[in-house]
Amino acid sequence: MKKILLACGAGASSGFIAQQMRKAAKKQKIDVKVSAVSDTEILENIEGVSVLFLGPHLAHKLSEIKDSLGDNSIEVLLIDKNHYASLDGAGVLAKAMNYL
Asked: Are 4 and 75 in contact (CB under 8 A)?
């Protein structure tokens, strides 16, 4: 099972998107684990993660977060602002599947 982690400022919006991603994955019979955290909790929750999505408002922290992960083979991406604004979990899941 592949793990996907979403992070935003407080973890609330990413939590809603993660919930929608889990529903979409179940409907499509995709075996993934999707979790959401605040940006300050990424390092405590990164173990086993294949793809990390950041809220679009964290674009300024993208390089810093990538650097904090070291030589890890984790794909770090920004959530599309339209998917983020509409809480489109299916859209984010589709993007994640391109990297899994």
From this structure: no
For 34, the enclosing helix (H) or strand (E) is: strand 32-38
How many residues does the structure list for the chain?
100
Inter-residue contact 74 to 51 (CB < 8 Å): yes
Task: Please classify residue 56 by burial: count the beta carbons closer than 10 Å to its beta carbon, then call 0-12 exposed, 13-18 middle and 19+ buried.
Answer: middle
Identity of the residue numbered 30: I
Q: Residue 39: which of 16, 70, 60 has the closest Cα?
A: 60
Note the pLDDT tens digit of each residue in 2-45. Answer: 999 999 987 678 899 999 999 999 999 999 999 999 999 999 99
Answering whether pTM is above 0.90, one says: yes
